[in-house]
Every structure is written in structure tokens, then in C-alpha cells.
Design a protein that fits this description.
The chain has 77 residues and is an all-alpha fold. The protein has three helices and no strands. 74% of the residues lie in helices and 0% in strands. The longest helix is centred in the C-terminal third of the chain and has 26 residues.
Length: 77
């Protein structure tokens, strides 16, 4: 079961998102991992990666917001 769970998470992370901008790609990963968590609530690996993906999406949104306001983007604090 653990191997299956790991494989599902790796498949989500490996999904081709090359045609997406960074914000959309980060959102797509977070949404996919959210679905994995909903379908398999005991998948600790998916939960950990989902949290990281949500944070990554927030960082990308913040960078995008800063770039549109003309302020230089900073690394996440």
C-alpha cells in the first residue's frame, strides 16, 4: 500500500505542466494533490507534498503580484 501511495504522489508531481505559467503550474499541482488527499486521507506523503504545493503556489502568486505592481520580487520569507 505504501508503494502505491508513493507512486501516486510521484505521478502527480511528474505530470507535464511545461505549457503552463508558474502560477498555473503550481495551482495545478496543489489541486491534484488535494484530490489525492481527499481520495486517500491516510496518505501522509500526499499531505506533506500538498502543503508544500500550496506554499509554492502562494510564493508564485506573490511573485506575480509583485511583478505587476513594479516592485521587485523577493524570495519567500
Amino acid at each position: 500500500m505504501r508503494d502505491r501511495r508513493t507512486l501516486v504522489v510521484k505521478a502527480v508531481l511528474a505530470k507535464d505542466r511545461s505549457g503552463l505559467d508558474p502560477v498555473s503550474a503550481a495551482r495545478s499541482v496543489a489541486e491534484d494533490l488535494g484530490r489525492v488527499c481527499a481520495q486517500d486521507p491516510d496518505n501522509a506523503g500526499a499531505r506533506d507534498r500538498h502543503v508544500a504545493a500550496l506554499y509554492g503556489h502562494a510564493v508564485e502568486v506573490r511573485k506575480e503580484m509583485r511583478s505587476t505592481t513594479g516592485q521587485p520580487a523577493r524570495d519567500a520569507e
